[in-house]
Amino acid sequence: MTTSKKIFDCIDCPSRGTTEWDVLGDCELAQIDKNKRMLTYEPGQTLYSQGDPGNGIYCIQSGLIGLRRVDVNGNSVLLRLCEEGTTVGYRTFLTRREHTSSAEVLTPSNVCYITRAQVDKLLAANPRLGECFLKHFTEDAAEMENDYVRSMTMAMKSRFLHLILVFYGRLGYEDEDGKATVELPVKRSELAELVGVRPESISRLIDKLETDNIMQFNDRRVQITNVGEILEQVGADI
After folding, report:
1. Whole-model pTM?
2. Which of 135, 150, 165 marks a domain boundary?
């Protein structure tokens, strides 16, 4: 992890409109710029680890972060993905407890780190910021419920296709042959964690998808035959 020059000030940040910080005035945003740290991460690094104290808040300016939790038996699960415009670590910060998961960097990322002292000043001066964090909390809880319902009601194939389309929506592009392509930032075992099945089940499903010419996998590179058709199959919104 290295400290880098600021790529965007808060006022000009393209992700500002999707964050809690959008309710702050120009003077308050200038104070954040004056005190924040702009950090550059590479895949495999962590913003924080499970068990660390929540001494600040991280705002993802660019990149993709995965939240991972390890249980008492050492079993590891990739819980969710956080993209640009997402604030992470805020729940631990507000509850003054230790982080219950680790924040792992999946793609090259630029992240703003704002200390507890600075956030406390902003919360005291602008109650709307606290309201925004509460709204964020309720939206996260609703998303977790939706994920649970999806895992209970959707077939494994549909859940997997939905996940691949989510990655395509965030990281996808057309390759040199004009085919819809995405470079997955996670391993197959981690895809299984996100879908909620065993790795061998994902391997069998991938073989079936390739046989049916729905997708082609080359290590982490995936070519999707027909994005629109898959969207209709799973009713996904990317």
Report:
1. 0.77
2. 150
